[in-house]
Amino acid sequence: MIAATRTAPELASGLWVCYTGDVANPSGVGRIVRENPPSRFEARGSVDLRLDDGRLIRGLTSAHFNRTSPGCRFVMLGEWRATRRARLLELKRSLGGAA
To answer: Does the global pTM surpass 0.85?
Structure first.
């Protein structure tokens, strides 16, 4: 499980992000392609994300990456992979398989 005490990563161009999707939008992986300047809505600025299928998601703020939020849909790719690996190992152990 991802540590609930962690809030949001530093967002910068070139970082890989996993979008977990929702009922209406498929999941995907992409890169941060633009850093937007601070605004009245986000003092730290925002970023734009280009997913591998071409979709562009604009204006993501650090709040979108807050893992303490149950509705969080954006996760840094390395963190997502580590969490997935840990969950698969846990499942394998619970089914009686060797780790």
So the answer is: no
Domain range summary for the chain, segments of one domain joined by + = 16-94
Write the CA distances from 60 to 6, 19, 83, integer angstroms: 18, 12, 22
Half-sphere exposure of residue 14: CA atoms within 13 angstroms, side-chain side: 0
Write out the two tokens for 97: 């398989």
* 69 contacts 80 by C-beta, under 8 angstroms: no
Q: Are 38 and 45 in contact (CB under 8 A)?
A: yes
Report residue 25 as tokens: 């939008």
- What pLDDT digit, counting tens, does each position of 46-69 carry? 999 999 999 999 999 888 888 777
Structure-block tokens of residue 63: 């709040």
